Amino acid sequence: MSQKTDKPETVAIVGLGLLGASLGMALRDKGIKRLGWTRRPEVREWAVKENVIDSTAGDIHDVLSQADITVLCLPVPEIMRCIEHNAASWKPGAIVTDIGSVKAVVVECGEKNLHPRGVHFVGGHPMAGTEKSGPDAAFPTLYNNAEVFVTETPDTCPEAFARIIKFWEDINTSTVKIGVREHDILVAHTSHISHVLALALTEAVLDCPEKEQKLRYSGCATGFRDTSRITSSSPQMWREIIENNQPAVLETVKELEKRWRHIRQIIENKQYDQLQDEFAKGKKLRDDWIRYKNNTQHCNW
Predict the structure, then answer these.
(1) Annotation: CATH topology of 184-269
(2) Taking the complete model, does pTM exceed 0.90, yes or no?
């Protein structure tokens, strides 16, 4: 790690969509020099004008070469391409992290390409976002009280790891230290399966003959709206996430199928007392989770 100086720390944000632009907004007034880069020059200009970042450049190398910390706010395949294509741009001692929803492939790429150059890579994944995308959807409190997974491997520099923990906690998040594969199995259960389930639900309800569609639309109210909301997320992004975490997602889908078959059999056998017990079990599980989140949202764990 490089020696500390009195000059403001320089953070580069690569990717200025919902997550990247919201991060730039969250870093306002933190005593940090915010650099940003994205392929579209009009978005770079907008980001400077709207105080999302302090400055930018036409060439990504000019941004990365100045950064003490770089946050790659890109889809998983683009994170890896950015690392591979720009590995020589970062100065020795710099820290690179990311916001990708899958960690094993990203961390392997980061350590392989950056560590030999004296650049530290620490995987990250903030559990924040909406079903919307793009810079217009960004807002400064997106990360408030969010939990951020920060991954550690045997090759992780302890000082770089601690700095990334502090980076996220400084913008009002809670950090969770976790192993790479442990992370990928966890998010398959807690996040990725929700998108698969929402997709199946939306298709089961709305993928119907055209003559029935208007009536289906009329019959869907807030319950369907809430449970199907994340189906409006980026199809390409979710294809890429699941493609890069296929074994863990498949394991989770099989677990869902087992539980779904169990509930279906209860209904087929008209075991309504047992069905009520299942509803009660589900209610308790969710109520306990809500209570836990309410009690820990301001704590680090």
Answers:
(1) 6-phosphogluconate dehydrogenase C-terminal fold (1.10.3660)
(2) no
